[in-house]
Design brief:
Blueprint (H helix, E strand, L loop, with lengths): L2 H14 L3 H11 L6 H37 L2 H17 L6 H9 L2 H13 L5 H16 L3 H11 L5 H29 L4 H37 L9
Helix pairs in contact: 1-8, 1-9, 2-3, 2-9, 2-10, 3-7, 3-8, 3-9, 4-10, 6-7
């Protein structure tokens, strides 16, 4: 595995680190008046462990399908399907800018639901089981939409590393995913209420922009999928597969 691939994995992990589950919700926990560092740490450990186990399962499945996938990947039908998926992702990335996307965002009550979840994990009656449940729920909801994570699984599973090394690399990826939230947790514990206003501003910014960043990633991945398929089909003048 080259340094370029490792750098790419680190970049994907940092993109994943800005998701609602890995950063925005921990920040909501940290800005709660009765914040509990142990609860935040348990939340991050749970969601990080969830993504590590999920990644191991996905890599195991990918390894079992490697030989079949090599044959499937040589088919023009597969390339046309990939081209269609890539174009659909690229077009779909403009959804937030459409009148329908703006209307749905304006009428969404996701903020109220997330506020209720925050009370469950850091409120006066919060329990460890509630923290674990919310972390697992966040992971389940976001797993399918975290395209950088899925792309990273593909890069790791197709590397020439042995399985233990792949598991260790995936663990490092998950740690980087949780690293920004862990740093903010350390600042919150070390500087107490002095960092609370800054965390509140970060929370407000992420609430406005996290969704847009995800759609940018969808569009970029869609472009590369479509371009790769078009190249192998010879649509750019190259020899098709």
């Amino acid at each position: 595995m080259t340094l370029a691939v490792i750098a790419g994995l680190a970049g994907l992990a940092l993109v994943d680190s800005t998701s609602i589950g890995t950063l925005l919700f921990p920040i909501w926990m940290l800005t709660h008046p009765s914040v509990r560092a142990g609860r935040v740490g348990l939340y991050l450990a749970t969601i990080g462990g969830f993504y590590w186990v999920l990644g191991l399962a996905l890599m195991a499945g990918a390894s079992a399908l490697t030989d079949h996938w090599a044959a499937i990947g040589e088919s023009d039908v597969t390339n046309w399907v990939q081209l269609g998926i890539g174009v659909a992702m690229l077009i779909g990335s403009f959804w937030p800018d459409t009148p329908w996307g703006k209307r749905r965002a304006a009428t969404s009550d996701s903020g109220g639901r997330r506020a209720q979840m925050r009370e469950r994990v850091v409120g006066e009656r919060s329990t460890a089981s509630a923290v674990i449940s919310v972390a697992l729920l966040s992971g389940l909801i976001e797993a399918a939409s975290m395209l950088p994570y899925i792309g990273a699984i593909g890069l790791i599973s197709t590397s020439d590393l042995a399985l233990p090394a792949q598991a260790g690399l995936l663990l490092g990826y998950v740690v980087v995913m949780c690293l920004p939230a862990l740093i903010l947790l350390g600042l919150r514990v070390g500087f107490a209420d002095r960092v609370a206003p800054t965390l509140e501003r970060i929370e407000a910014w992420l609430t406005r922009h996290t969704g847009g960043a995800i759609w940018w990633v969808v569009g970029i991945l869609g472009f590369f999928l479509a371009a790769d398929a078009a190249t192998r089909l010879g649509l750019f003048g190259a020899t098709g597969g």
